[in-house]
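User: For my dataset I need records formatted as: sequence, then structure tokens, nothing else. Please produce one.
Assistant:
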Amino acid sequence: GAPAGSAPAVRLQVSPPPGGAFEQSVETVAMAFSPDGTQLAFVATDTSGTSQIWLRALDALDLSAVPGTRNATSVFWSPDGQSLGFFADGALRRLNLTSGSPVTVSSAPAGVGLTGTWGEQGDALFASVQGEAIYRVSMNGGTPVTAITPDSSLRESRVLWPSFLPGSNRFLYYRMLQDGSSHLMLGEAGLPSRPLVPMASNAQWVDPGYLVFASEGSLLGQRVDIPGGRIIGEPVSIGASVNYFLGTGRGMFTASRSGAVAFQPHHDIDQLTWFDRTGRALGTLGAAEGALHLRISPDGGKVLFDRSQPALGTHDIWLIDLERGIESRLTTDRMTEVFPAWLPDNLSFFLSIAAGGPPTIHRGSVLTGATARVLPDRGMQVPNDVSPDGRHLAFSERRGDGQFDLFTLSLDDGREELLAGSPDFDESEARFSPDGRYVAFASNRSGRQEIYITPFPPTGARTQVSPLGGRLPRWSRDGRELLYLAADESVMAVRVQTAPALQIGSPERLFTLDAGAAWRDYDISADGTRLLAIVPVTLSSTQPLTVVTNWIAEVERR
């Protein structure tokens, strides 16, 4: 046979299950290579939309679903390659692939991105994307204990992405500082952690001595001397493009000890598109690029939206002047700016900025692009809407369990009030009625997301609007109608009267969106005749992963 290490690098593609999609979020890496690089485990949905873990052996063409892993959100392997660890339904679980039924190891917070790593001593380390701690737990069961927390005296804001090194109790992890800079750290039980190298992504070790990580939107391999805490030589490119998000340092890749690497090279591409009330597309706005949220100005003449920069893994706020068709970028730094929400003056807006921690609320200017912080760092915060008189901001804030509560902030005196919140439910997407007397919002209190209306100022009363699921409530400018998207992605319209008392009609279907083209966001034109929506052109979660094997041998021959 050929001498070891002389085989060329092999590249192949792995597609999601037919009619399904990879689990893909900026909060977790939902795939993992077995230590020997022969099998790729990943979380994906099937045609029914149910998520579970799937396996693909590299010497096979077929995928196989792993029974007992419904609702998994991320996955990792045991060092012997015989078992999987995964998070589902508020628990850390393990599953032996030959004997087969899942065993609960410990509880783990639901609703936030969690990632884990399984060490050769039988312990796992795991962390949530919120970065408040890295926890250690025995995979035989037990109560998680805190292994690492951010050290505020070192200006650390988050610790996440733990990854055990082979053959030892040492591990790598990622730390973010309050100024947004970040490092790859070396941790070991009982010893102080030490920074290895500045780095802006999760990283994994590959034998005989490489790190795999994302940088500037590319996937790289880098020779490293762990004891000496230094990198050796120049990085090598494994993939020219990798799905990457700077705000959490998440590169969508996984590497095995043997050097097999899988990664998602594709990015979401969306198009801002105008529709009439029958669902007919009327034309597009701006270039087709990744976008998440949009908002038409109170005067109807401008649009704010957040556009992605895939190579940097960030988003910026952009403005389009509808009359002149000119777009301009309002935020230009290296941080992630998302969730724009206009103030009534048409000149200022609220937004969330992520810099070294979860996104927090700031106020921005359309004229200068300058931003100023409004609320202190807590959990992730999302500005939802400003009252028509400009005196109150409705915003959602994430709790430790990953669900959101709704608050209002008085812009006069800074007082905060709970608008809709409960330790058991997720409440978001608040929108003030044009007369300011009511707020529409989405809540999962019935067991699925529905639209409700509550008085403002809040009294605790609420009226359910949608009968069959609902998200993204939007008022018409005259306040006589509320639009929302039903669970089957139909655009629904409801007649509403807010004075002298609240009266709500029955929802009527305007049209249903095409399968696979569910809008990310939308708004209603000032005259109510058109809708401006963010329509997916390419969903990266439905695109194949790239797998590369034997790239190290190719590098070492150079």
